[in-house]
Amino acid sequence: MSAAIAALLSEHLGLLPQTLGDRAVELAVRARLEATGTDAADRYAARLRDDRVELDALVEEIIVPETWFFRDGEPFRSLSRWARARQRPGGRPLCVLSAPCSTGEEPYSIAMTLLDAGLAAGTFIVHALDISGRNLQRARAAIYGELSFRGGGLDARDRYCTPLEGRRWQVVDAVRALVTFERRNLMEPALLAGASFDAIFCRNVFIYLHQAARRRVLESIDRLLVPDGRLFIGHADPVETPESTFRTVGESGAFAFERRAARTPAAARPARAATPLPARPVPARAVAAAAAPPDEPGPPAITLLSASSLADRGELTEAVAQIERLLARGGPSADAYHLLGVIRVAEQRPQEAEVCFGKALYLDRTHHHSLLHLALLCDRRGDRASADNYRRRADSTRPKDSAP
Predict the structure, then answer these.
(1) How far apart are CA 137 and CA 141, in angstroms?
(2) Has residue 399 got a pLDDT over 80?
(3) Residue 86 has pLDDT above 80, yes or no
(4) What is the mean pLDDT of residues 39-62?
(5) Which residues span the domain enclosing 148?
(6) Strand, coil or helix: what is 295?
(7) Phi, psi of 199 (to 5 degrees)
(8) pLDDT tier, 295 (very low <50, low <70, confident <90, very high otherwise)
(9) 336 falls in which pLDDT band (50, 70, 90)?
(10) Number of folded domains in the chain?
(11) Distances from the Cα of 215 to the Cαs of 187, 205, 212, 268, 313, in angstroms?
């Protein structure tokens, strides 16, 4: 493998190639050389610098998903105990992040754990990230074989999955509706700007990162995790969490840390409630409706939830068509314009996205997630004053008693 390719992977993924084995990365590069008809590694490295699609394709070759339901066990038992103690009747939803989520077993395990802990649908939100589009496609399909249950959880499988042919199971729709997936790179410096979480699972990833990358990811976690929130890492992850920021909590097998209430001076800011990223703006009532079985079978209805599900699967054109039909049929809707704005962001059309979020605010000036998205868009184009104004408005309109 050329030094140029290794440097690119280090910058883009934070990857320490020897943690995967030089041979594994070399085989991945060779496969892409053959697929692209490139005859020299240096020429391929030059292409990678300018071709994001090809860089993503190489990442897909390198990443090998290695996960299963309720992996290691104790982190989920610890989450259950902590969530029961933290939940307050009528309070805001508990927000949990799984990053990276691989093929989805971990975020679905989190959702099942919280349901078993007595939390109802709509009282918690699970958001999941991964850099691999292939992984996310499998996660959204939520179909798994026996190996995915090798860590146990067979009782949960029987209660929360539907058996399919060929010794496979699919997570039921009611649980799938509780998890949102998004394609993101943990190395992004402004990862999930505007969001915050009560608990973050970031397990078995630090071991693959070089030291600078570990620091960057930990800085993102520090920013995203609320004071007194929980961080779960893997047992082999070489992470040195600052004692001024994190303290070890729970049983030794959980590998859990608590975010201290007092922040370090460099990151000092007022304590805030957890706020999920507005990647899939489905109100709590819609989640509850998705979890409830229909009265009778029939063709799937066109709803904001169905349009959001299409967007989650990357079917953006059909999602937009459904939203437009909803607007034509039911009239202006802040939630519909917000979802349309989210899709325009995904399509790299920021100006159109701002128009959509503006329409949402015209209809509902307290629309929390539209305010957050506008703050982020203003940040990206250098308009700090407008971004700060939107962020202040978002802070004053954060939902307290319902899911965003």
Answers:
(1) 6
(2) no
(3) yes
(4) 89
(5) 74-267
(6) coil
(7) -145, 145
(8) very low
(9) confident
(10) 3
(11) 10, 12, 5, 18, 31
Q: Rounded CA gap, 63 and 180, in Å?
A: 21
Q: What percentage of the chain reaches a pLDDT higher than 70? A: 85
Residue type at position 102: S
Per-residue pLDDT, 22:
60
Q: Provide the pairing of β-strand 197-201 with 124-130.
A: unpaired
Structure tokens at 266: 């460099």
Q: What is the domain-level CATH number for residue 321?
A: 1.25.40.10
HSE of 187, CA atoms in CB hemisphere, 13 A: 15
The answer to whether residue 364 is domain-embedded is yes
State the average pLDDT for the chain: 82
The pLDDT score that the predictor gives to residue 360 is 85
Domain-ending residue, one of 242, 267, 292: 267
- Angstrom CA distances, 196 to 23, 48, 97, 126, 327, stand at 38, 33, 9, 12, 31
Residue 81: how many CA atoms within 13 Å on its side-chain side?
Answer: 10
CA atoms of 316 and 334, how far apart (whole Å):
19
| Measured distance CA(137)–CA(140) in Å, rounded | 5
pTM over 0.85: no
Check pLDDT > 80 for residue 123: yes
| Main-chain dihedrals φ then ψ at residue 316, nearest 5 degrees | -70, -40
Q: What angle (nearest 5°) sits at the alpha carbon of residue 43, between those of residues 39 and 47?
A: 120
CA angle 163, 168, 172 (to 5 degrees): 50
85, 117, 122, 271 from 81: Cα distances, Å: 6, 8, 19, 23
